[in-house]
Amino acid sequence: MPRTQQDRSKATKNALIKAARPMFGERGYAGVSADEIVAAAGLTRGALHHHFKDKQGLFRAVFEQIEAELSDEIAAAMDKAADVPARMAIALPAFLDACQRPEVLRIVLQDAPTVLGWETWRAIESEYGLKLINDLMVQAASAGVLAHEPSEVLARFVFSLLVEAVMVIAHADDPAQARGQVEANLGIMMSGLFSAPG
Predict the structure, then answer these.
(1) Which residue, of 52, 69, 106, 149, is most buried by count of CB atoms within 10 Å of its CB?
(2) pTM for the full model?
(3) Contact indicator for 108, 59 with CB cutoff of 8 Å
(4) Shortest CA distance to 95 belongs to which of 158, 43, 139, 28?
């Protein structure tokens, strides 16, 4: 059955993203040329420019794909928990685990703020990771285990804390030791946000 133009367009976009993602993850944005990407995808520069405008546009698509996958992964893990405290206990290590993957560390945390600009990076983060934190805090407030009123400012502080925690682990001489210290200190800091039910 003949494919529609929409199907062909989607297939071309997917091919470019599939080719670019491992390259960006392994060598970083600056270490990959547009010509390499289109060659690996079996396409032309014209296809890249038509669908993404330029390499930066393609990078953004890769970044958003990873963000969506991470959010879905962490949300699915939290959905298995019976209550809000259990969801929070699952979310933290799940986030730290995901962000230690070389692809995520390189694309999401190292390159994206520079390549896309801080404002664009934060706006996209707000659609995914920050939304998860906001939702979790609203749930915690409803369950009576949040010591303060939920707010976007509070969620942003928590998110920034988690991103810094990830970077501490990533750049440590002993990541395993740093992970233990990070989790212990995060536990201390986060405990001030929560209270016993009622």
Answers:
(1) 52
(2) 0.86
(3) no
(4) 158
